[in-house]
């Protein structure tokens, strides 16, 4: 039997067949298994992270300066300094990198649910181990810099939709990046290039699947916003489903 990497090389050369209905059904059935548990974990993690962030920012800037900082008028693009923008971009990039192992854990949860294996809270955080963390951190850093860089340049044209479309495209092209790191043990650069190569074999179908995911998550926001936390796991079920249908799990 070929190894996983040999199998992936064959897929990169010869392509693969993929059906919208098969992937969607797998993702949706998987989502139903993890929605409540994953949603609660995301909610608790978000609340904890927000409280920790507010405390750190409050101590860093001081309470009065912090209150002034979050005044809505200060977020008017005309009032934003280059220093603030760089700090903002740097903070968002660092945040994405730090939470990427947690998100990888949600994809692992989807896998455990699919094979009916017991899952524990500790499993969500297992990818903070250095061997995985460094690859997830680097991959997220590269993707975020590219996404925010291109989006910022296109936003400057006065057509924000262009920046959004580029950001969405980069996201779709990297739909397999995290699964390749945690399931196939690829390094960051190898995972990114392989993901792009494989996605480009079926770009329209995968793009359509992700549009459905984003629309589903968007509907969650309208259910008193808290619904967002329970529709968001659908994204990680989709990441798992796409990896499972394209690459699969070879024992």
UniProtKB/TrEMBL annotation:
Protein species of origin: Flavobacterium palustre
Alphabetical UniProt keywords: Membrane, Transmembrane, Transmembrane helix
Descriptive protein name: Beta-carotene 15,15'-monooxygenase
Transmembrane region(s): 34-59, 85-107, 160-183, 204-230
